[in-house]
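Reopening this ticket.

The earlier resolution said the output was attached, but the attachment link was broken on my side. Pasting everything inline this time so it's all in one place.
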Amino acid sequence: MMTYLTPFERTGYDLFRSMRDWENEFFGGKAPVGNCKTDIRDTGDSYVLEAEMAGFQKDEIHLDVQGDTLTITAEHKEKTPEEKENDEKSTYLRRERTFCSYQQKLDISNIDADQMEASYENGVLTLKMPKKQPAVPEVRQITVK
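Inline output:
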């Protein structure tokens, strides 16, 4: 069964649950990228998304808007050879943090993408996403001849 793919169509607890359910169903419970804990608040005239992205540097996080889709991508790669050389002075007993990636796609058809703002502080990505204002129908008069 296919679940909703547009998180902003739903409210409350399962706002993101539908997309993650679809990923788990599609990939057999093994999504190809990591999941970051994400909260979305409705503040009336906008949405505020907060995603825990601990371990990523600001320059490793990319936000791309294409049409009505926002893609949040973060990727942390293994150190450069120069950085590795400095690490050789240390002996790792266990090393799991050589590569990490995250990707989330969101339907932003009801968001004013030109007014979105992003910040990253203390491992939390915050996106302020103003809602699109409903279009006011144009009223015009037609002259009778």
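Reporter confirms the inline version is readable. The chain has one domain: 7-130. Residues 1-17, 29-33 have pLDDT under 50 and may be disordered.
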